[in-house]
Amino acid sequence: MPENKSKFLIPVVGAVVVVVGSVAAYMYLRGPAGDGAGALSSAKLVPSSALMATYISTDPKSWAKLQQFGTPEAQKLVTQGLEDFNKNVLTSNDISYEKDIQPWVGGLMIAVLPPQQTQSNPSGIQRQPEPQVLMIAGIRDKLSALNFANKLKGQKGVKTKESDYKGEKIIETSTENNSSPTYSAVLNNSYVVFSPQRPVVEKAIDTYKGQPSFITKDGANLVFNKGVDVQNSLAQIYIPDYAGMIQQIAATSPSGTALTPQTIKQLQQVKSMVAAVGVDNEGVRFKAIANLDPTKNKFQYQNSPAKIVGQFPTETFALITGQGISQTWKTIVEQSNEYPEFKQGLEQTRSQLKTANFDLDKDIFGWMDGEFALGAVPSDKDILASVGFGGAMVFDTSDRQTAAATLAKLDNLAKTQSITVATKNVNGKDITEWQIPQQGALFAHGWLDQDTVFLAVGGPVAEALVNKNQTLENSESFKTITSSLQKPNGGYFYLDMDKTMSIVNRFAAQSQQPIPPEANAILSSIRGIGVTAVSPDQSTSQIEMLLALKPSK
Questions:
Q1: What Å distances lie between residue 175 and 1, 2, 156, 158, 280, CA to CA?
Q2: What is the SS3 assignment for 505?
Q3: Mean pLDDT, residues 224-235
Q4: Quick count: other Cβ atoms within 10 Å of Cβ 547?
Q5: Is the C or the N end of the chain the one with fewer CB within 10 Å?
């Protein structure tokens, strides 16, 4: 939670819970706790004008799952962060989140509402409006909440002032360390609602009294009912009107530039979205589900067999794979008719390539109709010695003739630039290299099999592709980072953090700017990152990301 939001959380919650004191309240508080822990129940207090809402779990079991990961250095940083939270936010050595707050808080919802109209300050200068924030804390254990409020009541520097709004008490709270007051109310003895703006709290009360809520918003039922399946959920994000949210944010941005009709049309391909973050045995997992409008979504999803991963050597530390570039290109060209500036740039590119005897649509993209992959492979040989790695693009194609003709044209173009083009045989496969005197091959290409062509930056990378003894798909790192991702899918993004950090540290040493110890401790706890996307039907798109973490020792 942002620090400026968390600073008013503790005094406000404590002050408003004091209001439910007295003997009668005490007797009530001994009864069973209300349903304050659910995202759906909290959302019923959020006004329908809200753009989005995030629900943060306060279940200690979910957060404790994180403790099974991380290096000792990283865990020390986390512990220090918790101590800083208690010191800077709770402001008192007598108050602890774990002892005084966690026992009674049953989930926290943070909703973003549209900003108020732009207002002028006394000097006549207009202030840029900012989105309004509403926070809702469920009261899971009322007795613990009252005990905390009574404890907080004796703290110095907390001042409160009560007022009535439609039969509910609104408490204005200020502290010595925070000049701006905050406003809150206890609703149904089961929720604390609070905000830096009083009108926002009033809207929450109006919603509680029967005005339309976030749940009644078009698309809200879908995102709440669909949900996202993650273990040990830490947070969920709900966006019932994706395009509307982006438009509202754009309209209140510092530039204040309105979105073009074409951009709005693109945004409207996504109707709503729900996402979640959780912790499982592999690490931290993020999943998002977008509800699409099939009448506006023109991009055709294709499952990828992922066989192309086997064309890369096991030492590959970064990889992006997918399927059907040619089909995607056709869709982009079709949609360019709606964007005059983009279409103009496209035509200029076509004209420029024609002068070099290349047809952009046929020679460049037309034959890329199968699986493709872009990978980074470590090497300190020849021209790659200074950077430590090179790159390779691999394509499966059903049109070898056109692909071969395009590569031949590239070779002829290189010769006109006084580059030496030579062919050599490695492991029974011909590799064509663009050679630079005394530095080796800058670029190379060849065929791995009848239908698979590669283009490599750096001759050593080309040799690694054709000489591989072990393939990436069988490496422990790739299997650990990607095996739990949903299958079938549209392709992978894969990153091996240990191998990546060896490259990063190399550059840091060369530039004499070492990575800060804190950042290095966190990065050293990460095994890798795996991402994939799935589209089970024309109305749904899903993305899944795993931040694979190393187990603690």
A1: 19, 18, 9, 5, 40
A2: helix
A3: 85
A4: 21
A5: C
- DSSP per position, 378-444: E--SGGGTTTSEEEEEEEE-S-HHHHHHHHHHHHHHHHHTT-EEEEEEETTEEEEEEEETTTEEEEE
Q: Identity (one letter) of the amino acid at 198?
A: R
Q: Are 104 and 144 in contact (CB under 8 A)?
A: yes
Instruction: For 10-31, write each residue's pLDDT tens digit.
Output: 444 444 444 433 333 433 444 4
Whether residue 36 contacts residue 138, with contact meaning beta carbons closer than 8 Å, is answered with yes
3-state helix, strand, coil in the chain (%, to 5): 40, 30, 30
Q: Return the ∠ at Cα 201 (arms to 142 and 178), rounded to 5°.
A: 85
Q: Are 322 and 304 in contact (CB under 8 A)?
A: yes
Question: φ and ψ at 150, to 5 degrees?
Answer: -65, -35
| Rg (the chain; Cα; Å) | 29
Amino acid at the residue 397: T
Task: Supply the pTM of this predicted model.
Answer: 0.86
Spatial neighbors of 139 by CB under 8 A, at least 6 apart, are 17, 33, 34, 36, 104, 105, 106, 145, 186, 189, 190, 191, 192
**3-class SS of residue 540:** strand
Query: How many CB atoms neighbour CB 218 within 10 A?
Result: 12
Strand, helix or coil for residue 25: helix
Return the ∠ at Cα 544 (arms to 538 and 546), rounded to 5°.
Answer: 170
Q: What percent of the chain has pLDDT over 90?
A: 43
Helix 142-153 with 3-18: angle, nearest 10 deg:
100
Look at residue 316 and give its three-state secondary structure: coil
Torsion sign over Cα 458, 329, 275, 539: negative
